[in-house]
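Entry type: protein chain
Record version: 2
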Amino acid sequence: MKRFVALFALVPALPASVTPLAEAAPPAGACTNAEPAHSVIVEEPWAQQLLDPKRVWPHSTGAGVLVAVVDSGVDSDHPQLRAPGKVLPGRDFFYAGNLPGNYDCVSHGTAVASIIAADPVSGVGFAGIAPGARILPVRVTDRALNDGGEPQAIDPQAVGNGIRYAADQGAKVINLSLSGYRDLPPIRDAVSYAEGKDALVVAAVGNRQENAAGSASFPAGYPGILGVGSIDISGARDDSSQIGGYVDLMAPGKSVVGSTRAGGHDYWEGTSFAAPFVAGTAALVRAAWPSLDARQVAQRLTATAGMARGGAGSPAYGAGVIDPYRAVTEGLSGAPAALPAVPPPAVDLAAEREHAWWAQAGSSAKLSAAALVLAILLAVLGTLVAARGRRRRWRAGRSAAKPRPAVRDEPPEQMFLFPPPAVERPPS
């Protein structure tokens, strides 16, 4: 099931029946056709096996870092997100009014938040990358898809307001699992505003292309943003993950596990769910290296990325696949010091003379063996020729004439990389 959010629509007025509640349950009338609860997935997902966040937790869990999830809201009642202080009330920019953002109608934002910071629980293999981080839910959309099954448009002003709000609340990482083709001033200006407050913005590059490069992607294409593409379990780029200079890093995004509203988990696909793996890793780094600014954190994430199929700096894979352990623990102390000069070893003259003798002897033996083999071959050949000559009484022979190939009057049939059009195909 492919789920992602695209940009652009109007903020609806708060329905008259909706009453603000400071709880994770959706306010009455806020959600129509809310997604039901899902079952729990107990197996450890492939993405967690690949990135192995447990390995880095002794060094950093992201504690003290506030990560904003600008999305469809976050269900703070989920068992892996309900720890006190884990998910803040946040704010709803979709409905006009004074609603919090800690509820979700479609699970999109809840899945994103869980990939970032879900707590480990007994009997469940899934957990977030940075379980010590806190989540600031910023609700800017109601549904991931419209009634026709197409990506639901989002009001760019709501997104811009949400980004500014997150920066003002002290978010040091802002996750934007949304994308579009247009450069929109409200979002561009808000991103610049957040970067001015030392927030690192992480954005999905989008899921609307197969293998061609060159399509625009915003907000991933804005300067300073880390654009994230999606890989599958084999490490290959997901076919729909966009290609371009805005791809900075790759992360798991094909059939990855994330939490759902009202409990349980589901499998999710797309760059929307690759981005939070990078946002979570950024939280780990910001907790472990508090003196680094957002630009330096971004540099650290790209410098420690694992090798991807496209090689470093490719438009399909960026710097490579995010590596939480290296991002936190790598020393990155700069260029290594010059190595001391190594003195040349003393020459053993006796050993050199012995080596030269054996080399000369070996060469002589090889030449002798080659000459002997050649003499044997010549003798055998001479014997065969003499025997044939005696049988023919030394008369000259003539080989039978070979038949001449027929000359084609037309060129050979053309080779097609793809089947020719129906009118050109030979009858079957």
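Comment: The chain has eight helices and eleven strands.
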